[in-house]
Amino acid sequence: MFWWIGVYAVFLWCYNGFLESLLGIIWGSLKNLLIRERFPQKYGKWAVITGATDGIGRQYAEQLARKGMNIMLLSRTEHKLIAVAAEIERKYGVQTKWLTVDFSKGPEIYKPLREQLASIEVGMLVNNVGHLPPPSQTFDENSDQDVTATINLNIVATTTMTRIVLPGMQRRHKGIIINVSSSAGYHPGPGMTIYAASKAYTTSLGLGLAHELHGTGVQCQTVAPFVVLTNRSQDFAKLLPRFMAVLDVERFVRSAVFTIGKTAHTCGHWLHPVQIFHINFLPQSPEEAIPGWWQYIIIASAGVNS
Q: How would you class 243 by CB atoms within 10 Å of its CB: exposed for 0-12, middle for 13-18, buried for 19 or more?
């Protein structure tokens, strides 16, 4: 008699879990076949990427340069910035700029950033920089330095960078903000409580902003990856069971870039919703009891680039 309630519950779970994003990607792909518009024309000439010299951030820089975007790299290590900028210019023939920024510091770092960004047409902002404290530490065991760094890199940097570039995008009626979050933000994470909470903020900010910007010509996309193989995560990835397919960073970002402009919320690659599937079937209390070291292994590989 009440079988339809079960059918509706399953449909709702599927829709929220992956169908909404999948339908958006299909519809966006069909529109792209009819209206062929390159990223620089659609969004603006420059892509600004935080945490841009390694891992997911560097791959975003390369993949977007391949699509004709000029690239502004923001990171804390000058020699890496110089090397990556030179390689991108050589390989893709686009313009690059770079600026040394330590996002773990306070609000004083944003004044020179505002001045630099005011001189270019920012069409894309990739909020990728982040910080992950050591594994299996309870909140009271986290050092003050780790707590401050997590807040400044995962929350303050994403929020402030968005507020810096958004007014210009709104004036031009085009642009996109891409927030690299994490599957950690979907559930509480004992043993990594502050990191999971910071990524829940990133996800919530992105989804809310996407709705607020609807109809303005400006978009916001939230990318919440699961297991991605980066330099930081490779040792942890070896400990994962075989059924958890570990994506290399180039493959992941190539897929994530394909979803730009097509969906406001994505895991970046079709394998990731499949991997999250088993966790979403757990009741909330057992889910929260998953040991912190296991969650760290999973989430450390979700593209933390400081």
A: exposed
The rounded distance, in Å, linking the Cα atoms of 292 and 275 is: 18
**Under DSSP, is residue 222 helix (H, G, I), strand (E, B) or coil?**
strand
- The 10 Å Cβ neighbour count of residue 107 is 9
List the structure tokens of 106: 């306070």
Residue 199 in this model has a pLDDT that exceeds 80 = yes
CA-CA distance, 144 to 137, in Å (whole number)?
Answer: 13
Q: Which two structure tokens, joined as six digits, stand for 253? A: 């970002």
Active site residues: 195
3-state secondary structure of 250: helix
Q: Are 235 and 254 in contact (CB under 8 A)?
A: no
H or E segment at 9?
helix 3-14
pLDDT at 225: 83
In sequence order, which residues have a C-beta less than 8 Å from that of residue 207 and are 6 or more positions away?
Answer: 222, 264, 265
β partners of residue 105? none
Which ranges of 35-77 would DSSP assign to H, the alpha helix? 39-42, 55-66
List of residues 6+ apart from 198 with CB closer than 8 A: 130, 150, 151, 154, 155, 185
**pTM reported for the whole predicted model:** 0.83
- The Cα 179–Cα 127 span in angstroms is 5
Bridge partners (DSSP) of residue 305 are: 129
